[in-house]
Design goal:
2 copies of one chain form a homodimer. With about 120 residues, chain A is mainly α. The first copy, chain A, contains 6 helices and 3 strands, in the order ααβααββαα. Chain A has one domain: Orthogonal Bundle (Arc Repressor Mutant, subunit A), CATH 1.10.10.10. Chain A is about 60% helix and about 10% strand. The first copy, chain A, has a 3-stranded antiparallel sheet. In chain A, strand 2 and strand 3 form a beta hairpin. The longest helix of chain A is centred in the last third of the chain and has 27 residues. Chain A is globular and about 60 Å long. Chain A starts with 11 loop residues before the first helix and ends with a helix. At the A-B interface, helix 1, helix 2 and helix 6 of A face helix 1, helix 2 and helix 6 of B. Chain A binds a DNA duplex (20 and 20 nucleotides) through helix 3 and helix 4.
Chain lengths: ~120, ~120
DNA sequence: CTGTATCCTCGCTGATACTG
DNA sequence: CAGTATCAGCGAGGATACAG
């Protein structure tokens, strides 16, 4: 099972890995962690993301129960996205990664330099 | 900086995220954690990976200092791959993810079911 | 404001075959 | 045994324009 976890798309590990591997998803989690934001706010904060891709990302996250989509029937229309408790809990694993990254980035970069020198 | 971490390819977080998002890299770490293996052994254990992709994965990991490539000048040739201490330490973040996945998979799956029902 | 609808390109993956 | 070479195909992702 440990061996097969990348081949079964239904494997929990694979599932989470695919989401965490997506840079937009990680960014959304980090940006939404302080409170709900509207579509345009998200877009501006992230910067460089097209509306299509942002929509895709948010839809996927909503499907998986990571964010909720709150629609206010006003004019002009307003939609707010916020993290669910599940989405908030994702910060744990993400933190583990960013911490590791900050701790070891110098070593990784050094390895790359060394590889280039060859 | 927290906002920009996905756009700068040199950002440590982005760097690690890209590697962890790659299913083959994660598998290699998990499989090599008990000791060195040869190219063919890795291929057989992983199953379903082509030599080209396995080579690409191992080269990338070697560049980043995650694995070492030990060549024994024998006939027939023998090459062993093993995790560096840095590679071993990657198990921490990976564990954080797999743990989260196993803990929350039911909730995620439930959210998906609910989304489908709509 | 909050998205959809197209189109297009690019990189990655896998299949297959071949070499030192 | 341990790769390299080559090619084809697919799908994600971005640019742009438009709609409710």
């Amino acid at each position: 099972m440990r061996n097969g976890d990348a081949f079964d798309p239904n494997c929990p590990t694979r599932l989470v890995l695919d989401r965490i591997g997506d840079k937009w998803t990680v960014l959304v989690v980090l940006i939404l962690k302080d409170g709900p934001l509207r579509f345009t706010q998200l877009r501006d904060r992230i910067g460089g993301i097209t509306p299509k891709v942002l929509t895709q990302t948010l839809r996927a996250m909503a499907r998986d129960g990571l964010v909720t989509r709150q629609i206010y029937p006003e004019v002009p229309p307003r939609v707010e996205y916020s993290l669910t408790p599940l989405g908030h809990s994702l910060q744990g694993p993400i933190r583990a990664i960013t911490d590791w990254a900050e701790e070891n980035v110098t070593e990784v970069m050094a390895a790359r330099e060394a590889a280039l020198a060859e």
